[in-house]
Structures are given as C-alpha cells and as structure tokens.
Amino acid sequence: MVDRRPDSEDGSRAKRQKMDKSGTDPRDNPYLAHMYADTSSNGNSSSQADNKNSAFAKLQRHKTTAALAAKVEDDDFNPFTNRPYSSKYFSILKTRRDLPVHAQRDEFLQLYQQSQIMVFVGETGSGKTTQIPQFVLLDDLPQAQRKMVACTQPRRVAAMSVAQRVANELDVNLGEEVGYSIRFEDMTSPKTILKYMTDGMLLREAMHDPDLNRYSTIILDEAHERTMATDVLMGLLKEVVLRRSDLKIIIMSATLDAQKFQRYFNDAPLLAVPGRTHSVEIFYTPEPEQDYVEAAIRTVLQIHATEDEGDILLFLTGEEEIEDAARKISLEADEMVREADAGPLKTYTLYGSLPPHMQQRIFDPAPPPRRPGGRPGRKVIVSTNIAETSLTIDGIVYVVDPGFAKQKIYNPRIRVESLLVSPISKASAQQRAGRAGRTRPGKCFRLYTEDAFKKELIDQTYPDILRSNLSSTVLELKKLGIDDLVHFDLMDPPAPETLMRALEELNYLACLDDEGNLTPLGRLASEFPLDPALAVMLISSPEFYCSNEVLSITALLSVPQIFVRPASQRKRADEMKNLFAHPDGDHLTLLNAYHAFKSPEAQENPKQWCHDHFLSLRSLQSADNVRMQLLRIMEREELEMISTSFEDKKYYENIRRALCAGFFMQVAKKETQGKSVYTTIKDHQNVLLHPSTVLAHDAEWVLYNEFVLTTKNYIRTVTAVKPEWLIDIAPTYYDISTFPKGDIRSSLLRAAERLSRKEKMRADSGKRR
Amino acid sequence: MSNYEDEDYFVPLEDQRVFGAGITKKRVPFVRSSDHELSTLTSSAPNTPSATGSSIANKYLSIVMPKPSTSSSSATASSLLPPPGATPDPTPNDRSRSAPPSPTATTATCEICNLPLPTSEPETDPRAQRKHESSLVHQVCLTHSHPPSHLDRTRHGLRYLESYGWDPDSRLGLGATGREGIREPLKGKLKVDTVGLGAVLPSPTSTAAEKRKTEKVQKLNAKQMRKGHVEARRKGEKLREMFYRDDDVLRYLGTG
User: Fold this and answer.
1) Which residues fall in a compositionally biased region of kind Low complexity (chain B) (predicted)?
2) B23, B163, B179, B195: best mutation site toward chain A, by most A Cβ within 10 Å?
3) Cα separation, A540 vs A507, whole angstroms
4) Which of A236, A436, A629, B37 would be a feasible disulfide site paired with A184, CB 3.0-4.6 Å?
C-alpha cells in the first residue's frame, strides 16, 4: 500500500505551495514528480485530501492531544465530509463532552499512543462504546493509511444502534464514513473509516485476511461478556500483533475484573474511567427462601407498598416463569389499589423471544398517580438476564434478584447443549445490583443470604467457550490456519474432552480428514455462517436433487420458531399447524408452511395470512432473508440449485435423505418395548418425541434437530428416516462392527442385508440386459 | 363491595391468587448487607491448594482440638506437630508441654513437607526419621503417581491432541504452557423446582430416610439369598474380566 504521507508538514507545505501562484508549481517539475505520485494518480481524491488537510492539518498521527482534537471538533467544517456542520452536531457535541470518558481523553490518548495493546475499563454509562472509537479516529487518522478502525460488539442490535448514534455524532451518513457489518447485513462503503461489527463478523473476515490488514486499530468492546467469538479473537489478535507492529488493540470491559485481561495480554497498560452510577444499597434475606418465585413476587409488592417512587426490575429465569409472575403481580397490585389505596403498578415482561415492539414497551414511562396528589405510580419489569447487560433501562431504582438464570451448558459425553436454571455468579449479581443505580441511589434486594452470596456463588460467570459445542469454532480455527489447538493461547481453554468431541464430529462430517487436516468440504463448509452439520447438509443437497428445498429448511432452522402457539388459543393453533403437517415429520412441515407463505395468495397480505395461520411473520421474513444470503454464498461457491419435480414420488424422500447427510449423528431409534421411547444412537440416551411433533406414524428411526433437556429428555423437530439411508450416506459412522450387540445393531444388520440384496438385484438385472 | 365478590366468583381456578390478599401478613424480611453498598468484587481467594505441611497440620489441629487445653490431646498432637520452638508465637498451651526440644535443633526441616524434623540429628536416628516419614502430614505432601486418565485411547480426537503434544495422563488442561485450562467439562445440574438459593428442603431427606426404613424390613428367603449371591459373584467376575482384559490396563500394570 502506498503511503500517502499524512504528516501535517507535508500537507501544509502542499497547501502553501498551491496558493503561491507567483512561483512555478513544483508539481510541474518532473524531478519532483515522485513526491506527488500518489496524489496525481487519482485526481479527484487529491483535492479532497487537500481539503481534508485543512482540518486534519492540525493533527499528526499518534500525536493528537485532547486540546488539538477539541479544536478539530469545534471547527465549522466537518473534516470527514467537507461540509459545514449542522446545528444538531454542536448540541450533541456538548452532551458528548459531558460524558465521563471525555475527562480522561488525554490520559487515554497517551496510553493509546504508547502501547500496542491496552485495556480500557469503563462502567456502564461512561460513554466508552461511542466515544473511544471517535477518540481513536482523530489520532489514528485511518483514512490517511487507507485503513479502518473496527469496533466489535457481541450483539447485532448494539452494532447497528451504536453505529447510527456515532454517525449522528460525527454528522455523517450511516453507511458512509461510519458503518456497520453484521451477519447477513453489510452497511459499509469504500469511504468507511469506522466500522462497528459483531465479533463474529470480524472473525469471519480474519478467515480470509489472517493479518486483518484492513484495520489500523481494533477495539474489542464488551470483552467482559466473553462471547465465543471475542475469546477466539483475543487469542488470534495476540498472535497477529506479533506479525503486525502497526496494529493497535484496545480491549474494553465494563467490569473491574480487567486485571485478568491485563495479565492475558502480557501486562498491557490499563485505564479505568468511573461510570455515572449512583450508590446501591444491598439487602439480603436473613434465611434462605423456600420458593424464590413467590418471594420475588412478595418483594415486588412490598417495595410497591413501602418504598419511595422509582421503578422495579425483577430478574427471573424463563418466559413461562416471567409471564406467570407478571400475571400474579398485576392481580395482587390491583387488589392493593382497591384495598390499600396503593399507587398504580404497571407490569411489563422482557425476554428474548418477545417481539421487538413488545420489548420496546418497557421504555414506556411509569403510570401517573390515579388522582392529582395521589400515591405515585410505578412500573415493574420482569425480565430474564437480558436486562443484566444488553439493555439499559433508565428509571430503575429497585432491583429484585433471586440469584438464578438460565445458562447454557454442553455435555460432550452425550453431545447435548442445554439451558439449565443455575445460580448466577458474584460478578453477575453485582451487575444486576448496579442496574438500580442508573438514575439515582437505589436498592437491591437479594433473595438469598449474604452467606450464600459469599459461599455458593462462583466469582465469575463461565465464558461461553467452556459451555458450548465447539465444532463450528474448531472449523473456524482450522480455517484460520491454527492447527495446534492444544497450545492455542485462549484466555480460558476448553476441556480436552469437549475439543476432542468437536474434532471427531468434524471428522465424521468429513470436514477434517483422519489426520485432522481441513478437507475441501470442510473449507467449503467454513464459508457458511452455519453450524457445520447444517453447512454439510446444504453442500451435499445437490447430490440429492433438492438444494432449493434444503436451503429453505436450513434457513427455517436458523431462525426462531415459526409456529406460534398462544396459551389462550392452543387448540386453534394446532389445527392450523396441521394444515401444513407432513406425516413424515417436522422438517417437511416447516417446508410446507414456508411454501404456503411464499404462495401468491399469502403474499397478498402476509401479515393477515400469518395471523390467521398462527405463524410468526417476523420469523418467516428473517428466514427469507437468511435464505437469500445463503443463496448468494451457494452461487458464489458454484453449488447447483436444483429441485426434484413435485410430482415425482421421491420428492420428499430425497429431502429426507439430504437431511441425513448433515444430521446422521442426531438419530434415535425406537425401543422395542415401551411406547414411544427412543434411544439416541451411540450416546444411548432415552428420549421422547417432543409433544409438538407432527410425525404421524410410529417411525422406527428418526432424525432430530434438537435435544431438549427438561424433566424429561425430548427430541424436537424430528423426521422419519431409514437405516439403509444412514448406512449408505454415513458408512464410517454407521460401521456396524463398532456397534455393541443389541437392538440397534441387529436393526442395522437387517438394513445392510436389505441394501446388499437390492444392490445384487440391480446388478443381476444389469447383467441380464 | 358486592361487586368485587362477584368478580372473584368468576376468576378461573388457574388465575386465582396463590397467596392471600395483603402482603403485609407475611413479609419477606431483609437485612442490610454487611458492607452496605455495592462494591467491587473482593477477590476472596480461597486457600490455595498447594498447602504446606504446617497449614495442613494446623487445620487438622483446629478440627481435633477446638479448645487445646487438655494435656492428653497435646501429647497426641506432638507426634504430628512441629516442636513449639518452630511456631513463631507459642500459645500458653504450648508452654505447658513437658519436654520441648531445644530451639537450636529446630533449624533442620524436612524437604518435602517443610516441617522441622522431630529430632536434633535426623540422619543418625532412622527410627525417628521413619516416624516422621510415616506421619500423616508427610504422606499428604508426598508427590505420588496418579491413575491414568479415563479417556478412551482409541478416540480420533485424542490422537489429534496427542500429535500436538498433549498427554492425557499429565493432569493438565489445554492452552498455553503455564496457563492451562480446565481438565473436565463443566457439569450442569438440572433444577426443576423453585427452591431458593441456599435453601434445603427438609422433605426429600426425610422421605429418603423413610424409604431406607422400609427397605430394611424386607426379608429374603434362602433361595433369594442364594440367587442374589450368585448374581453378585457373576457381576464381579465380569467386571474383573473386563478390567484385566483391557490393553491399557495391562500396559499400565506393566505385564503386557
């Protein structure tokens, strides 16, 4: 890449020379041509660059101070766009300068300039996510390097909304100088110099650009959340900085356990900025509670009856529990209004599967008093741990914390990922308490004893990488060229058994060969932002003449449940679902529903149609979007898009076979005794078909998409398959000699016999001809 | 008021309140936190596992002698304990001991358990040395071999990890040298009730106890006993055979 010499000396000299018309323009001097080689090569941008220098001339790369930067920001012209600033810009600028991070701008810049890696700790409300990248922009001057500044976020929504906010603050159009990039959506342009993106997207970019050469600075925001992608990126960046001395890294965290990051990055310097939070008083129960849900409800009502004005946030574990508690709270609150003249209490619920417009309602203001001068109203938000970090709700003064959350856990021995209600960590409890101090001093009521807090809670929540199936991560790492998975320097390396499982799964999927090298199929599969099993299914679907249909199914499996089943109209919803039901299983039912949704009749008024048929329009639309994105990848990779004719009697059979190509490791066989009890192949877990299944007949072998661990083990989204297909499609996995004596083995033997007999017949008939 | 009564009449069963009107009847009590306000995490580092001999000895002592006053208990302790001269701050109880060795002899310490050796010239007195070596404290501090890992050696994934230098029997996790990770996958516990954090329900334990009682009452006749006996023996044999036929075990035992 050509150096454009951003130094102010050069810039100002050029400017002076340009104005000096009396003398000869040195540009015309052929002996000095090399000095202007770059600017003359693209005339258009040269004038722009000169103009830019008018404001940026004050700055020198990695020498900016807060005062200098403030001067540029106070200028009349926007140096990024060469347009005068709008009036809104200056009003935003004023609020920006009030943010806590602004007070420490000089300290930040000094540390940033001195070090390659730094850790920045800013509590919620310090303004780090919006301001730090802008501080970096005015010091790193990435446009002069033809590079970008990246800022990663764990969540798509955050990446989008923060990018919008920062674009407003810099007075530029979103998608031009400031953009964002998330899975299935890229909102950037060649002009982009600051890019907000999900951590997963940066990881995907690293697969094609292992040194991340497009970036001059990479900021990993919300690193304390320890998502899988952030953890892998940190390990990766630790290696990249050794190769690229010009790359700067900032790790941003909201909690004070930042020493762990510091240690991990070889004692990188640390800067901490206090947040704008108020003190929170913490209360415990003197005795453990027998029923935390009931205690939580009582506590909420107690706060409503006795405490001063201020909204309440209650943390519970899941949708059902939350809806139930919310209903009880409103019933009791109504009673209190009637009998004790309490103020009005409005209840809102919040959980991941709630549609966005319902989630938005939590920001409604608290209800007013019932009559002027009456007792103030308040709202109570009953939420999962979404409200712990992801969403910030102002006005919360009271937090009720029972100490539980649904947390993911992966058991590599039976290969099941499940969500279990388990005690939170101390860090998590502190984070929850902190939510009470956003607007004024607050109170946090913990429904456990102080002793339990100290003794029963672990210090930190386990990072995602220790609680997930690693097969897609291992595939990504292999694609990134990291073969030594044993010594790869992760902050929290996973258990050996979990990694072994992932390697074995990838080997069975033929993404890795027996030596553990990436196969062409594995390389292809890593191009898809999907679970390896889904990617392999999609890639092999043309062999089964049904890539169009399998693509639809893949998209439908990647979005939230499309069938809606409201508690009040379960029967009606089930009737509607039966319209789409296919006797051979749920995958085909999904496909039928999708095809119906795409019919012209439904597309006339999709909203009404979905409402009538108890389908989620939002899920179907995002499935549509995912399908389009995946289609683009398939076309790029030159995978054939074909279908079997619908009239062909093998139409559905082909699809079921294609499902086997990806999901042959998720198969269960019916027990000979016992009604509808199934046993998973190789892992020998007893499971039941989930009650939501439409599978009509007693299928002996079924393939499933999901293992749900509750009081009973369920398999959800199942489709009937035949053992012959499995032996045919995945011969290594279904190598009969590896199965222990028993029902499954004899069934497989019979299937193999049928298969060979059929083959023999085919060969015989071939000979006769 | 009658209006309300009518309303109550039509509340469906599932919607009826679980607890009575008026929460004041049964308040959830709360106590202030001891450090009052939300503070940053105090990293209450638990006792490091690399316990030295003396810390184990002290812990043992604190269990055995909550109030170290009787002379008999101090006498039993003296076989385990360093001579009082070694402790920097001798308690009155120590002073009451009958025959403390001279403080000059305490400079010699055992290399393994970091405890002062019991006699002044340990090399010359093999009996005292053996006594020290057989002491609990010394034994605890000895490094000893561990059984091999339970992992199936034929697994493909293990082969991969081994080819990059991971030893399943090393009792180390993965990761950069010196910062190895966890050795076993995290375990989850299925929770289906709404019992609060730290609470123990009395009922399941009592029912379990009852069950045990009823089991005891069951009597077997001779035939059943014989049958059970044969069954148990067969099981044991099968297990032994499975165990000793295993190549890995044979290799480990050094006979294969």
Assistant:
1) 68-80
2) B23
3) 16
4) A629
